[in-house]
Amino acid sequence: MKTKAKSMNILVTLDQNYIPPLKVMLFSLIHYHPQDIEVYLLHQAIPKEALAELEAFFACTSLKIHPIQVDDQIFVQFPTTDRYPYAMYYRLFAAKLLPQTIDKILYLDPDIVIKGNLDDLYQIDMDRYYFGAATHVDWGLSRINQLRLNYENGIYVNSGVLLMNLKELRQSQDELAIGQYIDKFNPLLFLPDQDVLSAMYPDKILEIDATIYNMTERIFLKNNLFQREKGLQWIDDKCKIIHYIGRNKPWKTDYFGDFDRYYHEAVGFMEGYRYLANLNNKQIRQNESL
Protein backbone atom coordinates (compact mmCIF):
# COMPACT_ATOMS: atom_id res chain seq x y z
CA MET A 1 0.00 0.00 0.00
CA LYS A 2 1.34 3.41 -0.98
CA THR A 3 1.82 5.98 1.75
CA LYS A 4 1.67 9.72 1.45
CA ALA A 5 4.93 11.34 0.42
CA LYS A 6 6.59 13.21 3.29
CA SER A 7 7.37 16.06 0.91
CA MET A 8 6.92 16.87 -2.74
CA ASN A 9 9.24 18.60 -5.20
CA ILE A 10 7.51 20.77 -7.80
CA LEU A 11 9.08 22.45 -10.83
CA VAL A 12 7.63 25.52 -12.53
CA THR A 13 9.07 27.65 -15.33
CA LEU A 14 7.54 30.98 -16.23
CA ASP A 15 7.94 34.72 -16.61
CA GLN A 16 6.45 37.46 -14.47
CA ASN A 17 3.19 37.58 -16.48
CA TYR A 18 2.20 34.10 -15.31
CA ILE A 19 2.69 34.69 -11.60
CA PRO A 20 -1.06 35.33 -10.93
CA PRO A 21 -2.25 31.94 -12.30
CA LEU A 22 0.78 30.29 -10.69
CA LYS A 23 -0.45 31.44 -7.29
CA VAL A 24 -3.85 29.88 -7.94
CA MET A 25 -2.31 26.62 -9.15
CA LEU A 26 -0.04 26.32 -6.12
CA PHE A 27 -2.83 27.04 -3.65
CA SER A 28 -4.94 24.36 -5.30
CA LEU A 29 -1.97 22.02 -4.79
CA ILE A 30 -1.64 23.02 -1.13
CA HIS A 31 -5.34 22.35 -0.58
CA TYR A 32 -4.88 18.63 -1.30
CA HIS A 33 -1.36 18.18 0.12
CA PRO A 34 -0.71 18.93 3.80
CA GLN A 35 2.93 17.86 3.53
CA ASP A 36 5.86 20.14 2.79
CA ILE A 37 6.05 21.29 -0.82
CA GLU A 38 9.32 22.52 -2.30
CA VAL A 39 8.73 24.59 -5.44
CA TYR A 40 11.70 25.23 -7.73
CA LEU A 41 11.04 28.18 -10.02
CA LEU A 42 13.31 28.35 -13.05
CA HIS A 43 13.22 31.78 -14.65
CA GLN A 44 15.24 34.10 -16.82
CA ALA A 45 14.51 37.61 -15.55
CA ILE A 46 11.72 37.85 -12.97
CA PRO A 47 12.54 40.94 -10.85
CA LYS A 48 13.75 40.33 -7.32
CA GLU A 49 10.85 42.35 -5.94
CA ALA A 50 8.31 40.11 -7.69
CA LEU A 51 10.05 36.99 -6.41
CA ALA A 52 10.14 38.35 -2.86
CA GLU A 53 6.42 39.11 -3.04
CA LEU A 54 5.73 35.60 -4.33
CA GLU A 55 7.69 34.01 -1.51
CA ALA A 56 5.92 36.18 1.06
CA PHE A 57 2.55 35.25 -0.47
CA PHE A 58 3.08 31.64 0.63
CA ALA A 59 4.66 32.38 3.98
CA CYS A 60 1.51 31.19 5.77
CA THR A 61 1.70 27.73 4.18
CA SER A 62 3.93 24.64 4.11
CA LEU A 63 5.06 25.56 0.59
CA LYS A 64 8.47 27.11 -0.03
CA ILE A 65 9.59 28.85 -3.23
CA HIS A 66 13.16 28.34 -4.48
CA PRO A 67 13.86 30.78 -7.36
CA ILE A 68 16.68 29.79 -9.74
CA GLN A 69 17.73 32.24 -12.42
CA VAL A 70 18.85 30.63 -15.68
CA ASP A 71 21.35 32.05 -18.15
CA ASP A 72 19.56 31.74 -21.49
CA GLN A 73 22.84 31.91 -23.40
CA ILE A 74 22.99 28.11 -23.26
CA PHE A 75 19.82 27.99 -25.40
CA VAL A 76 20.62 30.62 -28.04
CA GLN A 77 20.84 28.05 -30.84
CA PHE A 78 17.40 26.64 -30.04
CA PRO A 79 14.25 27.82 -31.90
CA THR A 80 11.72 30.00 -30.06
CA THR A 81 8.51 31.92 -30.79
CA ASP A 82 6.53 34.57 -28.91
CA ARG A 83 4.39 31.82 -27.37
CA TYR A 84 7.32 29.43 -26.78
CA PRO A 85 10.32 31.26 -25.30
CA TYR A 86 13.58 29.79 -24.03
CA ALA A 87 11.86 28.87 -20.76
CA MET A 88 10.23 25.85 -22.43
CA TYR A 89 13.68 24.26 -22.72
CA TYR A 90 14.23 24.42 -18.98
CA ARG A 91 12.24 21.18 -18.70
CA LEU A 92 14.64 19.43 -21.08
CA PHE A 93 17.64 20.42 -18.98
CA ALA A 94 16.04 20.27 -15.53
CA ALA A 95 18.54 17.68 -14.30
CA LYS A 96 21.34 20.12 -15.07
CA LEU A 97 19.64 23.27 -13.78
CA LEU A 98 18.21 21.95 -10.51
CA PRO A 99 20.14 21.09 -7.32
CA GLN A 100 21.94 17.78 -7.59
CA THR A 101 20.36 16.58 -4.35
CA ILE A 102 16.91 16.24 -5.97
CA ASP A 103 16.20 12.84 -7.55
CA LYS A 104 12.55 13.32 -8.56
CA ILE A 105 10.38 16.31 -9.36
CA LEU A 106 6.93 16.97 -10.80
CA TYR A 107 6.74 19.70 -13.40
CA LEU A 108 3.42 21.59 -13.63
CA ASP A 109 2.41 24.34 -16.04
CA PRO A 110 1.01 27.43 -14.29
CA ASP A 111 -2.23 27.19 -16.33
CA ILE A 112 -3.27 24.15 -14.31
CA VAL A 113 -5.46 23.58 -11.28
CA ILE A 114 -5.12 20.61 -8.96
CA LYS A 115 -8.34 18.96 -7.83
CA GLY A 116 -7.15 15.88 -6.02
CA ASN A 117 -4.24 14.33 -4.17
CA LEU A 118 -1.26 13.54 -6.43
CA ASP A 119 0.62 11.11 -4.19
CA ASP A 120 -0.20 8.16 -6.48
CA LEU A 121 1.30 10.03 -9.42
CA TYR A 122 4.32 11.34 -7.53
CA GLN A 123 5.23 7.93 -6.13
CA ILE A 124 5.13 6.03 -9.42
CA ASP A 125 8.21 3.83 -9.73
CA MET A 126 10.09 5.44 -12.62
CA ASP A 127 12.75 2.70 -12.80
CA ARG A 128 14.78 3.56 -15.94
CA TYR A 129 12.23 5.98 -17.40
CA TYR A 130 13.19 9.64 -17.74
CA PHE A 131 9.69 11.09 -17.76
CA GLY A 132 6.11 10.26 -16.86
CA ALA A 133 3.79 12.08 -19.25
CA ALA A 134 0.38 11.98 -20.92
CA THR A 135 -0.57 12.40 -24.56
CA HIS A 136 -3.37 14.58 -25.92
CA VAL A 137 -3.41 13.12 -29.44
CA ASP A 138 -4.92 9.97 -30.90
CA TRP A 139 -3.12 7.18 -32.76
CA GLY A 140 -3.42 8.84 -36.17
CA LEU A 141 -1.89 12.15 -35.12
CA SER A 142 0.72 10.32 -33.08
CA ARG A 143 1.76 8.48 -36.23
CA ILE A 144 1.98 11.75 -38.18
CA ASN A 145 4.22 13.18 -35.48
CA GLN A 146 6.39 10.06 -35.57
CA LEU A 147 6.88 10.49 -39.32
CA ARG A 148 7.48 14.24 -38.99
CA LEU A 149 10.06 13.86 -36.24
CA ASN A 150 11.62 10.52 -37.23
CA TYR A 151 10.85 8.31 -34.25
CA GLU A 152 8.87 5.13 -33.64
CA ASN A 153 6.62 3.45 -31.09
CA GLY A 154 6.27 6.28 -28.64
CA ILE A 155 3.55 8.67 -27.57
CA TYR A 156 3.53 12.35 -28.48
CA VAL A 157 3.66 13.96 -25.05
CA ASN A 158 2.01 17.02 -23.63
CA SER A 159 4.73 18.64 -21.56
CA GLY A 160 2.39 20.50 -19.19
CA VAL A 161 2.63 17.71 -16.62
CA LEU A 162 5.92 15.84 -16.39
CA LEU A 163 7.14 13.53 -13.66
CA MET A 164 10.94 13.69 -13.96
CA ASN A 165 13.45 11.06 -12.91
CA LEU A 166 16.34 13.48 -12.36
CA LYS A 167 18.68 10.80 -11.06
CA GLU A 168 18.40 8.76 -14.25
CA LEU A 169 18.57 11.85 -16.45
CA ARG A 170 21.85 12.91 -14.85
CA GLN A 171 23.34 9.49 -15.46
CA SER A 172 22.15 8.90 -19.03
CA GLN A 173 20.87 12.04 -20.78
CA ASP A 174 23.02 13.20 -23.69
CA GLU A 175 22.65 16.98 -23.68
CA LEU A 176 24.79 17.42 -26.79
CA ALA A 177 22.44 15.12 -28.72
CA ILE A 178 19.53 17.47 -27.96
CA GLY A 179 21.27 20.34 -29.69
CA GLN A 180 22.21 18.13 -32.62
CA TYR A 181 18.63 16.93 -33.01
CA ILE A 182 17.28 20.50 -32.95
CA ASP A 183 19.82 21.61 -35.56
CA LYS A 184 18.76 18.78 -37.84
CA PHE A 185 14.98 19.04 -37.44
CA ASN A 186 14.61 22.75 -36.70
CA PRO A 187 12.28 23.51 -39.67
CA LEU A 188 9.95 20.67 -38.63
CA LEU A 189 9.58 21.64 -34.97
CA PHE A 190 6.13 23.03 -34.11
CA LEU A 191 6.16 22.77 -30.31
CA PRO A 192 9.91 22.38 -29.78
CA ASP A 193 10.04 21.05 -26.22
CA GLN A 194 7.27 18.50 -26.82
CA ASP A 195 8.73 17.54 -30.19
CA VAL A 196 12.16 16.93 -28.70
CA LEU A 197 10.86 15.01 -25.68
CA SER A 198 8.70 12.77 -27.84
CA ALA A 199 11.24 12.13 -30.59
CA MET A 200 14.39 11.67 -28.53
CA TYR A 201 13.02 9.60 -25.67
CA PRO A 202 10.18 7.38 -27.00
CA ASP A 203 11.34 4.42 -24.90
CA LYS A 204 12.09 6.57 -21.84
CA ILE A 205 8.59 7.99 -21.36
CA LEU A 206 6.14 6.25 -19.05
CA GLU A 207 2.60 7.08 -20.19
CA ILE A 208 0.22 8.43 -17.56
CA ASP A 209 -3.54 8.80 -17.93
CA ALA A 210 -4.47 12.18 -19.40
CA THR A 211 -8.08 11.90 -18.25
CA ILE A 212 -6.86 11.83 -14.65
CA TYR A 213 -3.60 13.78 -14.65
CA ASN A 214 -3.76 16.13 -17.65
CA MET A 215 -7.42 16.68 -18.49
CA THR A 216 -8.42 19.36 -20.98
CA GLU A 217 -11.69 20.63 -22.42
CA ARG A 218 -10.78 18.99 -25.73
CA ILE A 219 -10.22 15.57 -24.19
CA PHE A 220 -13.44 15.92 -22.24
CA LEU A 221 -15.40 16.51 -25.43
CA LYS A 222 -13.53 13.93 -27.49
CA ASN A 223 -13.97 11.13 -24.97
CA ASN A 224 -17.72 11.66 -24.96
CA LEU A 225 -17.67 12.67 -21.33
CA PHE A 226 -19.54 15.84 -22.13
CA GLN A 227 -22.99 14.95 -20.83
CA ARG A 228 -23.50 18.05 -18.73
CA GLU A 229 -23.90 17.18 -15.07
CA LYS A 230 -23.14 13.50 -15.57
CA GLY A 231 -19.92 14.36 -17.38
CA LEU A 232 -18.84 16.96 -14.86
CA GLN A 233 -19.57 14.50 -12.08
CA TRP A 234 -17.05 12.16 -13.70
CA ILE A 235 -14.50 14.99 -13.60
CA ASP A 236 -15.36 15.69 -9.97
CA ASP A 237 -14.91 12.05 -9.00
CA LYS A 238 -11.94 10.95 -11.12
CA CYS A 239 -9.88 13.83 -12.44
CA LYS A 240 -6.96 15.26 -10.42
CA ILE A 241 -5.39 17.78 -12.80
CA ILE A 242 -7.21 20.23 -15.09
CA HIS A 243 -5.01 21.80 -17.77
CA TYR A 244 -6.19 24.94 -19.59
CA ILE A 245 -4.18 24.55 -22.78
CA GLY A 246 -4.04 27.05 -25.64
CA ARG A 247 -5.42 30.56 -25.44
CA ASN A 248 -8.71 29.65 -23.74
CA LYS A 249 -7.89 30.62 -20.16
CA PRO A 250 -10.48 30.78 -17.35
CA TRP A 251 -9.08 34.03 -15.96
CA LYS A 252 -9.88 35.78 -19.25
CA THR A 253 -13.25 37.37 -19.94
CA ASP A 254 -13.62 35.56 -23.28
CA TYR A 255 -13.22 32.05 -21.80
CA PHE A 256 -15.72 29.51 -23.08
CA GLY A 257 -16.31 26.02 -21.72
CA ASP A 258 -17.32 24.27 -18.50
CA PHE A 259 -14.01 23.94 -16.66
CA ASP A 260 -13.82 27.52 -15.40
CA ARG A 261 -15.67 26.44 -12.25
CA TYR A 262 -12.59 24.47 -11.16
CA TYR A 263 -10.36 27.50 -11.60
CA HIS A 264 -12.71 29.70 -9.58
CA GLU A 265 -12.90 26.98 -6.92
CA ALA A 266 -9.10 27.12 -6.70
CA VAL A 267 -9.25 30.92 -6.43
CA GLY A 268 -11.59 30.37 -3.50
CA PHE A 269 -9.04 28.06 -1.83
CA MET A 270 -6.40 30.75 -2.22
CA GLU A 271 -8.59 33.54 -0.87
CA GLY A 272 -9.68 31.37 2.05
CA TYR A 273 -6.11 30.57 3.04
CA ARG A 274 -5.11 34.21 2.75
CA TYR A 275 -8.10 35.36 4.80
CA LEU A 276 -7.34 32.92 7.61
CA ALA A 277 -3.65 33.85 7.54
CA ASN A 278 -4.51 37.54 7.85
CA LEU A 279 -6.82 36.80 10.79
CA ASN A 280 -4.08 34.77 12.46
CA ASN A 281 -1.51 37.53 11.95
CA LYS A 282 -3.95 40.10 13.32
CA GLN A 283 -4.54 37.95 16.40
CA ILE A 284 -0.80 37.55 16.94
CA ARG A 285 -0.28 41.33 16.75
CA GLN A 286 -3.13 41.88 19.22
CA ASN A 287 -1.66 39.36 21.67
CA GLU A 288 1.77 40.95 21.39
CA SER A 289 0.33 44.36 22.21
CA LEU A 290 -1.25 43.11 25.46
From TrEMBL:
<keyword id="KW-0808">Transferase</keyword>
<dbReference type="InterPro" id="IPR029044">
    <property type="entry name" value="Nucleotide-diphossugar_trans"/>
</dbReference>
<keyword id="KW-0479">Metal-binding</keyword>
<dbReference type="Pfam" id="PF01501">
    <property type="entry name" value="Glyco_transf_8"/>
</dbReference>
<dbReference type="InterPro" id="IPR002495">
    <property type="entry name" value="Glyco_trans_8"/>
</dbReference>
<protein>
    <submittedName>
        <fullName>Glycosyltransferase, family 8</fullName>
    </submittedName>
</protein>
<keyword id="KW-0328">Glycosyltransferase</keyword>
<dbReference type="GO" id="GO:0046872">
    <property type="term" value="F:metal ion binding"/>
</dbReference>
<dbReference type="InterPro" id="IPR050748">
    <property type="entry name" value="Glycosyltrans_8_dom-fam"/>
</dbReference>
<dbReference type="GO" id="GO:0016757">
    <property type="term" value="F:glycosyltransferase activity"/>
</dbReference>
